[in-house]
Design goal:
Layout lengths: L2 H25 L15 H10 L7 H21 L9 E5 L5 E3 H15 L4 E6 L6 E2 L8 E9 L10 E9 L9 H5 L8 E7 L3 E6 L4 E7 L4 E6 L10 E3 L10 H12 L3 E2 L5 H11 L2 E4 L10 E2 H14 L3 E3 L16 E2 L1 E4 L1 H12 L1
Parallel strand pairs: 3-5, 11-12, 11-13
Antiparallel strand pairs: 1-2, 3-4, 5-6, 6-7, 7-8, 8-9, 9-10, 13-17, 14-16, 15-17
Bound molecules: 1,6-di-O-phosphono-alpha-D-fructofuranose (AFP).
């Protein structure tokens, strides 16, 4: 069975399962059971529908995205088991970012690699956890490059705090030599063809954009499928919530310090989880602003441009939000190195603009 046929077969199975559940609910006299079977839409189905809007689309892209959804379902199943002896805790290694590697970091990294390396169209995989990119020998000239943070917020695992996976997809620049791997990877964020994230929280939620709005899905664990929750998600234009690690306040520049004084005089709430993906997800849904500015110790910020800031900036902009490093639009930044860090101010349009207005004073 080809990849596409297999995908359609999977839709069919999922729809039949939903139909059976609806019938069973009706037979049990469940109040509110639908009189007819509702059309459920899985993420794969949604991607194919979106793809049909582009007459020259080949289906390759949906095949690639289904590799990501498969990987995140496997990771989710492992995250659910966090706390069990063989997967909890640190590996004893320190990653290229200088952070202690958690066992689940390693599992998530390997799962993404395994699920994407054999798609046939992924030529290069770039992970936040690895020193260098993986060029897939079997698909050396594969047209897509996938960059990911396999388990964002992983230092929170043992406290059962929401964590997530963030991904970004680039196309190879056809004008470049295949061998020039680093030049292929170091593309500015506006060149992303798709990006998104999964939050492993009270439920597992996926949001993605392929440049035509942001679409959100919830994993239905009973059937193992991401089911459409909301299409064309919009981020509220304002929101009186700020999200920052305020412990570093004395290290921020004057503009940010002034902004932090201002919010306290204007009835704002503070929310900070410490997992970017979860803080961003809340900001996308409820509005507000997330800030991780440069500090005196780390003037270039902490968050990674290619695996964190770029994909979330793409999602934010597609939902009507804004993402900047305080001076420049995130998506315009030309990366110089693979693990480049950046300050990040991201969220509702009016709130980000307000932060920037303090920078200009
Ligand atoms: P970990 O993946 O090591 O937990 O780091 C998470 C993160 O990169 C990002 O998700 C958070 O927003 C940020 O670090 C939190 O950093 P602070 O602990 O300095 O606030």
């Amino acid at each position: 069975m080809t990849g596409l046929k297999a995908t359609w077969f999977a839709f069919d199975v999922v729809e039949k399962l939903y139909a059976m559940r609806a019938e069973a609910a009706k037979a049990d006299g469940v109040v509110g059971a639908p009189a007819h079977v509702p059309m459920i839409r899985t993420v794969e189905q949604h991607i194919l529908e979106q793809q049909r809007k582009f007459p020259h689309a080949t289906g390759e892209f949906s095949w690639l995205l289904s590799g990501i959804t498969l990987a995140t379902k496997i990771i989710q199943a492992q995250v659910q088991r966090a706390g069990l002896l063989e997967i909890i805790g640190k590996t004893g290694d320190v990653n290229v970012q200088g952070e202690e590697v958690q066992k689940l970091d390693e599992i998530a990294n390997k799962t993404l690699r395994d699920c994407l390396a054999y798609r046939g169209n992924v030529g290069i995989l770039v992970s936040e956890e690895d020193h260098s990119p993986h060029v897939i020998q079997e698909a050396e000239s594969g047209r897509y490059i996938v960059l990911f943070d396999p388990l964002d917020g992983s230092s929170n695992i043992n406290a059962n705090v929401s964590i997530g996976t963030i991904f970004s997809i680039l196309q190879r620049n056809p004008g470049m030599r295949d061998g020039d791997v680093m030049a292929q990877i170091l593309q500015p964020g506006y060149k992303q063809v798709a990006a998104g994230y999964v939050v492993y929280g009270s439920s597992t939620v996926m949001a993605y954009t392929a440049g035509n709005g942001v679409h959100m899905f919830t994993l239905d664990p009973s059937i193992g499928a991401y089911v459409l929750a909301q299409e064309y998600v919009r981020m509220p234009e304002e929101g009186k919530v700020y999200s920052i690690n305020e412990a570093y306040c004395a290290q921020f520049d004057e503009g940010i310090q002034e902004y932090l004084k201002w919010v306290k005089e204007h009835n704002y709430s503070s929310r900070y989880i410490g997992s970017l993906v979860a803080d961003f997800h809340r900001t996308l849904i409820r509005g507000g602003v997330f800030l991780y500015p440069g500090t005196k110790k780390a003037p270039g910020g902490k968050l990674r441009l290619l695996y964190e800031a770029n994909p979330l900036a793409f999602v934010a902009e597609q939902a009507g939000g804004v993402a900047t490093d305080g001076h420049e639009r995130i998506l315009d930044k030309q990366p110089k190195i693979m693990h480049e860090r950046t300050p990040l101010i991201i969220g509702s349009k009016d709130e980000v603009e307000r932060v920037l207005s303090f920078n200009r004073r």
